[in-house]
Please model this.
Amino acid sequence: MNILTLRETKREKYASAHDLRRGCALRLINAGVSAETLKIVMRHKNFATTEKHYGAFRSAQSAANEVAEKLSAAENSPLVGGLMGGIEKAPQLNAEELLKLKSLLNSL
Model:
């Protein structure tokens, strides 16, 4: 198959007007626009519509921001140390322990 044939069979994807609208709303949410302002910009008649479509995204975003804030504030906590490598090295398994672990995992 030559290059020309590949180009002919490749389908191009286009963004619909709704895709652009959704992308605009998500950019506004990322910029910190309030839900009330988003309702007006998106021209929803009811706030419930805005909440239905974008509420879960806002909740996930605020949860992620809270976790990031807590992790950056407590750099020496055991959780962060465990996730980021911390000060102490993880204990290494010896050859016998590795063989036991492999056989246990293979039996599962």
Summary: Residues 16-77 form one domain. The chain has a mean pLDDT of 76.
